[in-house]
Amino acid sequence: MFYDTSDLKSGGIFLTLESTREGQPEKGLLPTYYFDICLIDGTRIGRCDLRIGHNDKTYISGNIGYSVFKPHRGHRYAAKACMLLFKQAKKHGLEYLIITCDPDNTASAKTCEAAGGRYIETADIPVDNKMYAEGKRKVMVYRFDLKACN
């Protein structure tokens, strides 16, 4: 079940729902929302997604993914988008979320910290994970306790 997303606005941005995907437990895929990140004037500045729930894959791949287009980086839009996604996750009764990033991606690590994440560890990516096949070997794992988020 997916919930209304029309309230995902704050800090000069809003999220526009592009699509959803039902979960596929047999493949380890969780129900997912896909959004565009937009400025208040409607300018599309990036994308983000929210995976609802937890399984052994989310510890490595995370519950949230985000990308801000180059001309719009440096304004904390990804952190603001994460805060809006936290609001959506709470509607589903989630108590925490995981966000991971490449250890070499300083900007993403700063986003996790700006959004209130607690660094857990730098974890090895299992060989059977899709990210491993893409050449990635480690991820930094951040936990976000949603009870502490407004």
Task: Map the helices and strands.
Layout: E1 9-10, E2 13-21, E3 32-39, E4 44-51, H1 58-61, E5 64-68, H2 77-91, E6 96-101, H3 106-114, E7 118-124, H4 130-133, E8 138-145
Antiparallel strand pairs: 1-2, 2-3, 3-4, 4-5, 6-8, 7-8
Task: Please tell me about this protein's structure.
There is one protein chain. By secondary structure, the protein is of the alpha+beta class. It has a single domain (9-148), classed as Gcn5-related N-acetyltransferase (GNAT) (Aminopeptidase, 3-Layer(aba) Sandwich), CATH 3.40.630.30. It is built from four helices and eight strands. Strands 1-2-3-4-5 form a five-stranded antiparallel sheet, covered by helices on one side. A hairpin with a 2-residue loop joins strand 1 and strand 2. The longest helix is centred in the middle third of the chain and has 15 residues, at 77-91. The mean pLDDT is 95.
